[in-house]
Amino acid sequence: MKKVLIVDDSAVVRNFHGSILKSAGFSVETAIDGADALEKSFRNNYDVILTDLNMPNMDGLTFVRKYREENKDTPIIIISTQEEALHKIKGYEVGANLYIVKPVKPKTLIMHIKMICGDSEVN
Hints:
single chain; alpha/beta; 5-stranded parallel β-sheet; 19% strand
C-alpha cells in the first residue's frame, strides 16, 4: 500500500484529500504545515507528498527546499490555489515534481499520484 503525506493548514483540505486517497487504497498521514511535515518525514518514509504553498510556520516552498536538502527523492506534488506561472516556476525550482491548481478533481488527483508513484494501474 502506497503511503501519502498530505501537508495543508486547512483541516477541510486534509480531510478531503485524505478521504479521496483512502478510498483509492492509499495509506494517508497528515501534517498541518511544513515544519510538522519535515519532522514527520524524518521519522517515516512516504511514497509521495502532497503540499500546499501558503501555510503558517513553514510554507510549502521552504518545506520542499529543506526536504530536498536532506537528499530525499520522494515525489512531491504541490497543490495550491496559486495559479500564476511564477509560483509554479518557484515550486519546480525548489524540487517539486508536479504542480496542481486547486480545486483538484478526485479522479485527477488519484491519476497523478499513481503516475508519479509509477503505479501501472492508472484508472
